[in-house]
Amino acid sequence: MTLQTILPLSAEALKSLSQQKNEPAWLAESRLNALELASRLELPKPEKTKIDKWNLSDYGTYQQATSVASLQELPEAVRALVKEEEATNLLVQKDSGAVYSTLSDELKAQGVIFTDLETAAREHSDLVQAHLSSVVKNDENQLTALSAALWTGGAFLYVPKNVEVSVPLQAVFLTENADATFAPRVLVVADVNSSVTYVDNYISTGDAARLHNGIVEVIAKPGAKVRFATVHQLGLNTTDMSYRRAVTENDASIEWIIGEMNDGNTVTDTSTVLKGNGSTSDAKVIAVGSGSQRLNYTTRAIHFGKDSTSQMTTRAVMREEANAIINGITKIEHGATRSNGEQAEKVLMLSPKARGDANPILLIDEDDVMAGHAASVGQVNPEQVHYLMSRGISRAQAERLIIYGFLAPVVSDIPLEQLQTRLQELVERKVGQ
Amino acid sequence: MATNFVIEGLKATIDNKEILKGVNLSMKGGEIHAIMGPNGTGKSTLASALMGHPKYEVTEGAVTLDGEDVLEMEVDERARAGLFLAMQYPSEISGVTNSDFLRSAINARREEGQEISLIKFIRQMEGSMKELDMNPEFAHRYLNEGFSGGEKKRNEILQMLMLDPKIVILDEIDSGLDIDALKIVAAGVNKMRSEDRGFLIITHYQRLLNYITPDYVHVMMQGRIVKSGGPELAARLEAEGYDWVKEELGITDETVGQEQEA
């Protein structure tokens, strides 16, 4: 027997909200269908993490956002993340909606679209309709259905055929008011042979309990190159449920750079569907857990295309009583000949009560492939601490060096210097030494 | 004030097994002491116990450096007080570059706000590496990771050069070194000789002592220093081995804390 899910919103309310926002008919209908799906679907069951007691119903209500005209009017938490001289291609969402959006004239002239998803649905309806929910399906589980029904704000990035964008496009998603729905959805469409780098940050202020249910979809058309960097630094009582998924067509590539720096419970799933021949995926994840966080991070590569290549690297540091389940799944489908999938998950535990569980999984239905995995879970090596201390370095500093050293192979590979620095600062803050 | 390092009646155990059975040794700045002896007689244990390795428990005795109680100090405090141990098996630390490590070690000796400037540090490091004939790329390699045995030893000497210690303990620094590397290491040590600095060289071969002339030579057996002399003692040990010492002292098994071989 399954209980019917208690929905955060009635169909009537959802319909009128959609009307009020002047959304196209297809979107209004899709939201209603998704809401109906949500009433029947169950929550996902992340491997080895029980989420049924988690706060997963705190969607709050939609609160209309008020746009601001200049960077100076943005909340302090956002301004701290945005350098003024780099703020020419920037999108900011506060709570339920976008409050600031700019795109350089040069990129506009090239046909690049970078705006919140609500605006995109109105102004580029066909483009959005063709791709939204095409990668992460509404009917996968209750969370994907509710995201499809309730998303607000969000980001839409479209890069036309053959356009190479050299500067990173940045988005910041801020939750301030715990009573406001915070469910942005990000859709990136990189057309044939284009290339782009997108960087976003999820931040929160205040301690009140709330939920972030977010979905990222990336479509890399043939030959496109997408670099997608995201840093989640949501607060103690914010539960973060995030799906990120890319589809790569022939010879396309996706590079994920992910900083899992939340202070609250988190389930994230970062996947690439390597649909096209010769396509590639590279996922780098660094994570720090503290307090009594319960964390579940999955990276996944599903190979359909021949000669497709995937790399996944996760390095996680767990301190205090944090508990992390880290899954790496490489799936090679029959027919994906000469594919190559490599993955490595490593966990460093800083206290006896911290836990880390690395689960590398290879699922291979094709003979002519290469695949490899490595996983390790361990504590700071006392011999190493002794060696550093024998040179006059204090115990705290020695441990700090070892922790940074553990994360360094991933951090130093991050191609954006500013992001590298920010991640280092966040690690420093979370490691608390 | 001249450096003065005194070990008195030092006893230490590992896993409740006594390895050091009362070591006495006194050294001053400017002196080079060599501790020789066959394998398994407690030489390396002495080095590790002096540096404060957590595996060894000191059960009796005293160690002072310029009158200060070394055994009361944490490992990092011993290092900052002037003790340096070139280890037989240095740790490998992934993700920490040699230069970041050395800079941290130098800055640990300085007050906050008085950190060494990057330029000055790089100049010093490059200079010292050149003296040791080290490839400059080793500055940017992760600490000891993937280094050969000889490269690790040279890296230990590099640290010695840069950290300017008062008492240097070299634990089997000559093992795994070819003759050219041995000469370079010896030149590094000889260059560091000064009135304020004492050296304690642990080895079971005479070969290193061909390049570094010790002032005193001690023989260790059964967890104690059983015989002391000048450089001529090392020469005789090289020529005749240890059996005559054992005979002279009536020792049949010179080792300590070892499982008896069947």
UniProtKB/TrEMBL annotation, chain A:
Pfam families found in the cross-reference section: SUFBD_core (PF01458), SufBD_N (PF19295)
Domain of life: Bacteria
SUF system FeS cluster assembly SufBD core domain boundaries: 174-406
The SUF system FeS cluster assembly SufBD N-terminal domain, residue ranges: 24-170
Protein family: Belongs to the iron-sulfur cluster assembly SufBD family.
PANTHER family, sorted: FES CLUSTER ASSEMBLY PROTEIN SUF, UPF0051 PROTEIN ABCI8, CHLOROPLASTIC-RELATED
Name the record gives this protein: Fe-S cluster assembly protein SufD
Source organism of the structure: Paenibacillus hunanensis
Automatic annotation (TrEMBL), chain B:
Keyword vocabulary terms for this entry: ATP-binding, Nucleotide-binding
Sample GO molecular function, one term: ATP binding
Pfam entry (one): ABC_tran
PROSITE patterns in the cross-refs: ABC_TRANSPORTER_1 (PS00211), ABC_TRANSPORTER_2 (PS50893)
Coiled coil region boundaries: none
Ranges where the ABC transporter domain occurs: 5-247
InterPro entries per record: AAA+_ATPase, ABC_transporter-like_ATP-bd, ABC_transporter-like_CS, FeS-cluster_ATPase_SufC, P-loop_NTPase
Annotated family: Belongs to the ABC transporter superfamily. Ycf16 family.
Name of the protein in question: Fe-S cluster assembly ATP-binding protein
